[in-house]
Amino acid sequence: MKSDLSNFAARLRTLIADSQINFADLALELFSLQFEANPAYRKICEARRVSPLTISDWTQIPAVPTAAFKELELTCLSAGQRTHVFHSSGTTQQKPSRHFHNAESLAAYEDSLWTWFNRQAAKVTDGFDMLLLIPSPAEAPHSSLVHMFDVVRHRRGVGSIEFGAVVAGDGTWTLKLEFVTAQLEKATRTGKSLLFLGTAFSFVHLLDHLEESGRQFRLPSGSRVMETGGYKGRSREIPKSELHSLITKYLGVPQQHIICEYGMSELSSQAYDEPTTTLRVLRFPPWARTQIISPETGREVADGETGLIRVFDLANVFSVMAIQTEDLAVRRGDGFELLGRAVAAEPRGCSLMAV
User: CA-CA distance, 274 to 319, in Å (whole number)?
Assistant: First the structure.
């Protein structure tokens, strides 16, 4: 007999496909299931004197800090059920977060990422090649970002796909700068539109290389650049507007064709901005919700104010739905404008992957 969580996952996948999401009811239902099936999460909730019987609204569901995924096995899956795990990246001195999956969990994750990617990001392109400043899945099997774009590759049916990084001995990602430059040359020569993905930090390295070598490109019409992740612990930081200006200068992609993505290994859904807007406002899909929380009061801030991002992700069926991040953002209606890592936060995630 299927478990209640398995039934929820199957039902959620159907609802995602049909865009029929009653978030409030589903969130309370999933919290009840995770409270029973996730021992580590239940202990956290009990320490806060919260249970499914004591709350009536999804905003009252206890959120787990991302740092807890380093120390605790925050999963509803027994050890024997765990077939895959995503790790947060970091320095060799840091302990990674762990997000455990099985076949059903990965199916929900993949449906979530593909559906929102196809609606928000891929809708602006039609028939493109992909150039990714990340390693291949064989080299980075525990990277959620690598897995994500491997799913996109198979479901989208793109033309060619090239991976522009390798994994170094210390676990960081090293760009193959000459190889990437050759792929950019190929794209300009063939005229095939390109979806070009990288972390912000990877793009800084590439753009510095292009400047030093005196190279500039004008990628074909229809090409898109997608940047994700940040800088902490790895390079100089530059404002997003400056990074996008440099991408336009050296790659020939207009700023309205640069897409920003926000995600992390602890989540199963991602946020994208609207590339046509001047203000970069990121939004999660209808099966996730965001709050911007004041670190001083623990309450949601008013529109236009700054706080820490808290995400409630229904696609996190077999782990924890409510995640408290260490990322700062400005609340913009039902979305947010990402500012970066909180000052005291440990560098983590894709911002540490490329060198």
Answer: 29
Stronger pLDDT, 291 or 158, i.e. the higher one: 291
Q: How far apart are CA 243 and CA 87, in angstroms?
A: 27
Q: Enter the pTM of the model.
A: 0.90
Question: Looking at residue 231, what is its pLDDT?
Answer: 54
Listed in sequence order, the residues at least 6 apart from 345 whose beta carbon sits closer than 8 Å to its beta carbon are 232, 326, 327
Kindly report, residue by residue over 16-63, the tens digit of the pLDDT. 998 789 999 999 999 999 999 999 999 999 999 999 999 999 999 999
- Three-state helix/strand/coil letters over the chain: CCCHHHHHHHHHHHHHHHCCCCHHHHHHHHHHHHHHHCHHHHHHHHHCCCCCCCCCCHHHCCCEECCHHHHCCCCCCCHHHCCEEEECCCCCCCCCCEEEECHHHHHHHHHHHHHHHHHHCHHHCCCCEEEECCCCCCCCCCCHHHHHHHHHHHHHCCCCEEECEEECCCCCEEECHHHHHHHHHHHHHHCCCEEEEEEHHHHHHHHHHHHHHCCCCCCCCCCEEEEECCCCCCCCCCCHHHHHHHHHHHHCCCHHHEEEEECCCCCCCCEEECCCCCCCCEECCCCEEEEEECCCCCCECCCCCEEEEEEEECCCCCCCCEEEEEEEEEEECCEEEEEEECCCCCCCHHHHCEC
Helix axes 200-213, 240-251, angle to 10 degrees: 50
Model confidence pLDDT, tens digit, residues 163-181: 999 998 878 888 999 999 9
Close Cβ partners of 156 (under 8 Å, ≥ 6 residues apart): 118, 122
Q: What is the pLDDT of residue 343?
A: 66
Whether 318 contacts 100, CB under 8 Å = yes
Spatial distance between the Cα atoms of 109 and 319, rounded to a whole number of angstroms: 11
pLDDT single digits (tens) 232-244:
455 567 888 899 9
Give me the mean pLDDT over the 278-298 stretch.
93
